[in-house]
C-alpha cells in the first residue's frame, strides 16, 4: 500500500502543488508519494503560525506549555512503534538503532526541554545610583515568534524534535521543513502533537526541496522571525543569504570533518570499538562521526588492524534482520557522492585497508544505496579526502609522533564540530580535549550526550549553540524592564 505524505497547515493535512516519490534506500522500492508545498502553502503555514501566536497559544502559561510538552513525549512513547516503522522505511536504518537512538531521543527531547523551561530563572539586577536611588532591572523572555525549522535526513526525528521541543516549550510557533528524503516522521509528529492538545497552527509541516522550492520560500518569507537549521555548511551559507535582507537570527548546526586522536597509552580494547562506533554508526551519516583518525606511531599498525577487524564484523542487511548492524546510505544520489570520494582517495594515493566500493548483497538489495565500510591509510592533511566531509562510513588513519603534532593536525580543518581523544593519561585527556577547536570534545567516549550541555560547532560547522539553556537563548527574545524604585 502506497502512502502519501501531506503538508500539515493550521491543524489540517493539505496538498501542495506537485508530488514526488520517496524511494526506499534498502531496495529501491517506492515508500510513498510526497506532496510538495508551493509558495502559497508556505505562506499559509507562516500565517497560521502567526495567528496561533496572536491567539490563545501566545497567552499560554509556561506551566501549561510544559505539561503539553510532557504529553507529547508520552504520546511519542505510546506510538513508539509507529515512529520506528516510519523512520525505518524512510532511512533503511536497522530497527534496533532507530529504537535505541532516534525515537527514544525524540521523547527525551520533549521531556528534557520541558524540564529546562520549567526550571529556568531569569536575570535581575538591583542597580544602585550614586545619589542613593535604586532601580530594578529584570528581563522577560518572550518567544522569538514564527520559527522556520529546517532539518536533514540523517537523524530525521531526533534532529527535528531537538529544535521543535525547545521552540514550542518557549512558546513559539514553527514551520517545519523536513528533508525531501525523510518526510514520514515529521508528518506523523503532526498527528501526535495535535493529539496531545497543542493548538492548530503551532506546528506546521511543509514538504519539498531546498533551492527554488519550499526551503527557499520559507527562509525568504518576511513573516518568519528566525531560522534554526541543521544540514550542510554550503546550505547554511545559502540560508544566511536568504534571511539577510530581513536580518533574522539563525542557529546553524552544520557539517563536520571530525578527528579522533589515539595516544599510545590509550586502552585499545576500548578505543578500537569506540573508533568503530564513531566511524561507522548510522553508516557514517552522523554529523559527529569520525572521518580522520590520528594515531601515535607505536600503536598505529595495531589500531589499523583492530579497526579493520571491527569493520569486518559489520553486517549490512535489511533493517528488520536482527543481525544487521549497518544500513544503506540515504539514497543513490548520496552514494554517488560517497563513491566519488572513494575513487578520489585512490587517485590521491590512499591505500584502501578495507572496503572502497559497493558490496554485493544479492539481487534483492541490488537497487539499494549500499556502500562498503571503508578505511584508508597513506594520506595526510593535504589531501582533499582528508579535508572535505564525505558523510559516509569511512575514515583516514594517519600516524603522529608528538602531542603537539596531533593537536595541530586535528585542528587543521575549516570545520570544527566534534573531536575525540583516546588516552589513559587524565591530564593529557583534559589538556588535549580543551585545545580542540570544536564545539564538542569527548575523552574516551563519543556521542555521549547530556541534553543540558551546549551543542554546536565553530568555523564551517555552525553558528550558535543549542541544548539546555543555550536553546532557550535562541528561541526567546529578552525584553529588559527597568523600574526606578
Ligand atoms: P542539506 O543541507 O542538503 O539539507 C538539509 C535541509 O536543508 C533539507 O531539508 C534540505 O531540503 C534543506 N535545504 C537545502 N537547500 C536549501 C536552501 N537553499 N534553502 C533552504 N533549505 C534548503 O543536508 P543533508 O544532506 O540533508 O544532511 C547532511 C548534512 O547535515 C551533513 O553535512 C551533516 O554533517 C550535516 N549535519 C549536521 C549536524 C549538526 O548537528 N551539526 C547534524 C546532522 C547533520
Main traits of this protein?
alpha/beta, 7-stranded mixed beta sheet, 485 residues, 21 strands, Aldehyde Dehydrogenase, Chain A, domain 1, 6-stranded mixed beta sheet, binds nicotinamide-adenine-dinucleotide
Description:
The termini are far apart. This protein is 39% helix and 22% strand. By secondary structure, the chain is an alpha/beta fold. It contains 15 helices and 21 strands. The relative contact order is 0.14. The strands form five sheets. It has a seven-stranded mixed beta sheet with strand order 15-16-17-14-13-18-19, sandwiched between helices. It has a six-stranded mixed beta sheet with strand order 10-9-8-11-12-20, with helices on both faces. The protein has a three-stranded mixed beta sheet with strand order 1-5-4, with no helix packed on it. It has helices at residues 39-54, 62-78, 80-91, 95-119, 156-169, 184-196, 214-219, 233-243, 268-280, 300-313, 332-347, 384-387, 403-411, 426-435, 468-475; strands spanning 3-5, 7-9, 12-14, 18-23, 30-36, 124-128, 134-143, 146-150, 173-177, 203-205, 226-230, 250-253, 258-262, 290-296, 351-354, 374-377, 394-400, 418-422, 440-443, 462-463, 476-484. It folds into two domains: 3-254 and 459-484, Aldehyde Dehydrogenase, Chain A, domain 1; 258-443, Aldehyde Dehydrogenase, Chain A, domain 2 (3-Layer(aba) Sandwich).
Amino acid at each position: 500500500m502506497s502512502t502519501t505524505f501531506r503538508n500539515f497547515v493550521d491543524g489540517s493535512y493539505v496538498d501542495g502543488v506537485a508530488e514526488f516519490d520517496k524511494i526506499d534506500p534498502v531496495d529501491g522500492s517506492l515508500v510513498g508519494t510526497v506532496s510538495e508545498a508551493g509558495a502559497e502553502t508556505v505562506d499559509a503555514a507562516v500565517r497560521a503560525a502567526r495567528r496561533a501566536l496572536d491567539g490563545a497559544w501566545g497567552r499560554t502559561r509556561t506551566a501549561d506549555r510544559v505539561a503539553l510538552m510532557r504529553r507529547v513525549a508520552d504520546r511519542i512513547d505510546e506510538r513508539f512503534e509507529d515512529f520506528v516503522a516510519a523512520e525505518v522505511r524512510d532511512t533503511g536504518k536497522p530497527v534496533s538503532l532507530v529504537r535505541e537512538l532516534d525515537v527514544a531521543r525524540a521523547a527525551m527531547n520533549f521531556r528534557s526541554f520541558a524540564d529546562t523551561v520549567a526550571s529556568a530563572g531569569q536575570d535581575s539586577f538591583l542597580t544602585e545610583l550614586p545619589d542613593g536611588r535604586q532601580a530594578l532591572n529584570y528581563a522577560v523572555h518572550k518567544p522569538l515568534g514564527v520559527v522556520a525549522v529546517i532539518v536533514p535526513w540523517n537523524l530525521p526525528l531526533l534532529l527535528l524534535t531537538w529544535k521543535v521541543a525547545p521552540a514550542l516549550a518557549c512558546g513559539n510557533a514553527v514551520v517545519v521543513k523536513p528533508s525531501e528524503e525523510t518526510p514520514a516522521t515529521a508528518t506523523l509528529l503532526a498527528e501526535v502533537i495535535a493529539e496531545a492538545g497543542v493548538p492548530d497552527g503551532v506546528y506546521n509541516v511543509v514538504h519539498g526541496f531546498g533551492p527554488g522550492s519550499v526551503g527557499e520560500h520559507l527562509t525568504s518569507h518576511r513573516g518568519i522571525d528566525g531560522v534554526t537549521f541543521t544540514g550542510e555548511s554550503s546550505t547554511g551559507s545559502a540560508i544566511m543569504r536568504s534571511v539577510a535582507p530581513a536580518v533574522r537570527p539563525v542557529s546553524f548546526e552544520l557539517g563536520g570533518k571530525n578527528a579522533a586522536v589515539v595516544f599510545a597509552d590509550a586502552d585499545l580494547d576500548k578505543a578500537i570499538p569506540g573508533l568503530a562506533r564513531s566511524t561507522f554508526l548510522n553508516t557514517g551519516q552522523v554529523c559527529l562521526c569520525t572521518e580522520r583518525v590520528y594515531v601515535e606511531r607505536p600503536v598505529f599498525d595495531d589500531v589499523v588492524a583492530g579497526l579493520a577487524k571491527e569493520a569486518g564484523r559489520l553486517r549490512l542487511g535489511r533493517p528488520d534482520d536482527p543481525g544487521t548492524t549497518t544500513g544503506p546510505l540515504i539514497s543513490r544520489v548520496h552514494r554517488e557522492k560517497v563513491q566519488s570520494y572513494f575513487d578520489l582517495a585512490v587517485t590521491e594515493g590512499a591505500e584502501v585497508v578495507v572496503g572502497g566500493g559497493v558490496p554485493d548483497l544479492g539481487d534483492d538489495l541490488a537497487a539499494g544505496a549500499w556502500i562498503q565500510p571503508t578505511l584508508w591509510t597513506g594520506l595526510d592533511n593535504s589531501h582533499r579526502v582528508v579535508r572535505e566531509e564525505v558523510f559516509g562510513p569511512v575514515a583516514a588513519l594517519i600516524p603522529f609522533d608528538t602531542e603537539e603534532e596531533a593537536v595541530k593536525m586535528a585542528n587543521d580543518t575549516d570545520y570544527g564540530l566534534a573531536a575525540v581523544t583516546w588516552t589513559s593519561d587524565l591530564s593529557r585527556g583534559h589538556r588535549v580535549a580543551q585545545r580542540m577547536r570544536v564545539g564538542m570534545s569527548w575523552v574516551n567516549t563519543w556521542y555521549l550526550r547530556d541534553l543540558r550541555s551546549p551543542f554546536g560547532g565553530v568555523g564551517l560547522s555552525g553558528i550558535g549553540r543549542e541544548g539546555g539553556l543555550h536553546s532557550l537563548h535562541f528561541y526567546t527574545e529578552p525584553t529588559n524592564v527597568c523600574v526606578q524604585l
